[in-house]
Specification:
- With 323 residues, this protein is α/β, with parallel strands linked by helices.
- The protein has a single domain, classed as Protocatechuate 4,5-dioxygenase, Chain B.
- The strands form four sheets. Strands 4, 5, 6, 9, 10, 11, 12, 15 and 16 form a nine-stranded mixed β-sheet that branches.
- The chain is built from ten helices and 16 strands.
- It is globular and about 60 Å long.
- The relative contact order is 0.18.
- It is 37% helix and 20% strand.
- Belongs to the MEMO1 family.
- This is Protein MEMO1.
- It comes from Tolypocladium ophioglossoides (strain CBS 100239).
């Protein structure tokens, strides 16, 4: 039963415990003491959306989500991420027994993995691809640190359930959401939804622009075009991300999927978010209250405020949902 190595330690984030502790503490210190008039962590905030880029880029934004995450009753934490290392249809689960972090190892919940795998007819993640996948790994140091604050010893830490959510259509996302519904209902489960938002630039093959500040009226720029005479490019990026996060806040899974279909916004974790939204919407339907179980967007940042088409940017969002 192998341990997945912390392969991004030393590059995407520091592998030195003392330096990592200073960095994460620095990010967490920037989060206000209360969010939406609630002390932190927010009671019942068992589902978060958090980014997965290198900590120098997205670590500050991620701190907002992790500050909200309520682990007080957690026995296991589901981590839903997109696949960056290979094309995946459907979903896939880890075969590792543990995931390493610079702080220490986190244990995989083998029984839950097997039950979810069978229910969703999921594949196994090839171990080499699992080891290379940053959408899962980048959450683990933050999670371990939060667990240290919430539990007396590592023996009491919740187990983890790492799942890659592949290229599913709207109906398939709803099916996976239904599988996860029973786990959402159980207060012993928490969920981390891994996603960055707009990836803009030549490298990402996404260079849309709106001279009218209207995300429904987009043209495509060339890499070596001059800076547009109208609003700066980063304003278009902001509008695209606001349209996507408005759909997330709506609580309507269809609205989120339809928005991305219209704008083609390059939200890399759109399928993990879609699955989570589908499950939360089912929960709201069962409660006969569509205003419940919606995501609250609490932080939005970009790696660069793009002015010229030759530049690039990735956007980061943090959110939570109370169950």
């Amino acid at each position: 039963m192998a341990t997945r190595p912390a392969g991004k330690a030393g590059s995407w984030y520091t592998g030195h415990v003392a330096a990592l502790e200073r960095q994460l503490n620095g990010f967490l210190a920037l989060v206000p003491e209360t969010i939406n008039d609630s002390p932190l962590p927010i009671p019942g905030a068992r589902v978060i959306i958090a980014p997965h880029a290198g900590y120098d880029y997205s670590g500050e934004c991620a701190a907002w989500a992790y500050s909200c995450l309520d682990l007080s009753e957690a026995k296991r934490v589901f981590i839903l991420g997109p696949s960056h290392t290979y094309y995946l249809e459907g979903c896939a689960v880890t075969t590792f027994a543990k995931y390493a972090t610079p702080y220490g190892d986190l244990t995989v919940d083998q029984d839950t993995i097997q039950r979810v795998k069978e229910a969703g007819e999921m594949e196994d993640i090839p171990r080499a691809k699992d080891s290379d996948e940053h959408s899962l790994e980048m959450h683990l140091p933050y999670l371990y640190k939060r667990c240290k604050n919430a539990f007396a010893s590592p023996e009491d830490f919740p187990t983890i359930v790492p799942i890659l959510i592949g290229d599913n259509n709207k109906g398939e996302e709803k099916s996976v959401g239904r599988i996860l519904l029973s786990y959402l209902k159980d207060p012993e489960n928490a969920f981390i939804i891994s996603s960055d938002f707009c990836h803009w630039g030549h490298h990402f093959r996404y260079m849309v622009y709106s001279a009218e500040n209207d995300p429904t009226k987009l043209t495509t720029l060339g890499r070596f075009d001059a800076a547009p005479a109208g609003p700066p490019i980063h304003e278009t990026i902001r509008l695209l991300d606001e349209a996507a996060t408005d759909a997330v806040k709506s609580g309507k899974h269809d609205a989120f999927v339809d928005n991305l279909k219209q704008t083609r916004n390059t939200v890399c974790g759109r399928h993990p978010i879609g699955v989570a939204m589908a499950a939360l919407e089912l929960l709201a339907e069962e409660a006969n209250d569509e205003t419940k179980y919606r995501f609250n967007i609490i932080s939005y940042k970009r790696s660069n405020l793009v002015q010229k088409p030759i530049e690039s940017s990735v956007s980061y969002v943090s959110a939570y949902a109370v169950l």
